[in-house]
Amino acid sequence: MKSYPPEPFRIKTVETIRRISRKERETALAAAGFNIFGLRSDDIFIDFLTDSGTGALSDRQWGAMMQGDESYAGARSFFRLKEAMSQIFGFKHFVPTHQGRAAEHILSTLLIKPDLYIPSNTHFDTTEANIRARGGRPVNLVIEEAADPAAFHPFKGNMDIEKLEAFIKETGAENIPLGMTTITNNATGGQPVSLENIRQTSEIYRKYNIPFFIDACRYAENAFFIKTRETGYTEKSTLEIAQEIFSLADGATMSAKKDALVNIGGFLAMNDDDLFQRAQNELILREGFPTYGGLAGRDLDAIAVGLWEGLDEQYLEYRLGQTAYLVEGLHDAGIPVVLPPGGHAVYVDAGSLLPHIPRDEFPGQALSIELYLEGGIRGVELGSVAFAYTDPETGEKHYPLMELLRMAIPRRMYTQAHMDFVIETFKQIAERKDSIKGYRITYAPKLLRHFTAKFEPID
Ligand SMILES: *Cc1c(COP(=O)(O)O)cnc(C)c1O
Fold first, then answer.
1. How far apart are CA 298 and CA 344, in angstroms?
2. Burial of 178 (0-12, 13-18, 19+ CB in 10 A)
3. Is the residue at 10 inside a domain?
4. Using a 6 Å cutoff on CB, does residue 97 contact ligand 1?
5. pTM of the model
6. Which of 22, 68, 142, 234 could hold 146 in an S-S bridge, CB 3.0 to 4.6 Å?
7. Which residue lies with its CA nearest to atom 8 of ligand 1?
8. Residue 184 forms part of a structural domain
């Protein structure tokens, strides 16, 4: 079994967590409509719902927050963030936003019109929904290996470059207002994208004059994967790698709740002057004045410090080592997981673990429920509940590549003993897996249905 990397920090403040009884968990789950999003955090022992905004701040971040400048315009906090932004990302302009989806919203509002196509390796759910909300068509062109949970590829999040060029030729560049790539590729398992792949993606978009935006949520984890897995980058620092990545793009959207190690925040960055002008106007309408976006001054300071801490190589070695420890522990216990380990999360292949549950009865949802009942652990379905949809034109039903359960690991929060407890819980579930049943939806909204849908067990 893989060794656990010692944390490159020690604990200064603690937060109590409790495990309520099995009976109490059953009651809580029924009250939540069998959707783990409906649970109260007090009823959860280990919360792997998301790594978004759930991590621990450092003493340096708390210290910086005390110096937050809450001036409406031109705050010192903004300029400290601007300094970090220009050193790491190097884009000419940026606007802070309250989270990643606000940046996506502004970008979509400015660039997307009905029936235009937006290719990516794989769009994340909020990106996809923001594109659809403007009538646009998100297109995912990840390499084929991504669909096989057991296939080993060091950069399983890569764009299929041939497919990308063929798609642009077929669709016509005039129907593609922007192209994207997501690093790391969250929706297919937190898998990294190689620098070579980002460079090729950039070359193709530039060849056809398509603005290239990177969904940069986990750029630091991706940079460390490049450093450790890609030829020619071992001697480069994660900062240098990040700078090289962003020099290839025209802009980026980011949720600072990921690799900027904060509880709230995000940004939209770009080089284009005109787009920046329009983004500022849109920002003022929806988020706030351009020097604070939807955030408090202290939030901007926390991001400015967090961006640097997120790039720290000792931290990244621990961070990715912790994820790998959980992945390999589950794999050794015979639980089908997406391999190789990704960055921020462990993806259990619920479709393979529960092959007797059809896709329309949501094996990932069923597993998320068992995980909570057995251990008080919360993970989230990223399969047909989250991603299956019916094409509005053809009426054809589309399924995602895999039926996954994602356990996202909050940053700097849980210890080795927590990870061992999770592995033990899975062993218990595996012993009675044949008796686990599927679910049907009793309520669902039109977009992003997994957040608020309600379910009932199928007998
Ligand atoms: C979290 C995330 C987003 C959206 O960010 P929010 O801050 O949750 O709005 C977009 N893309 C990816 C890849 C993400 O992981």
1. 26
2. buried
3. no
4. no
5. 0.93
6. 142
7. 100
8. yes
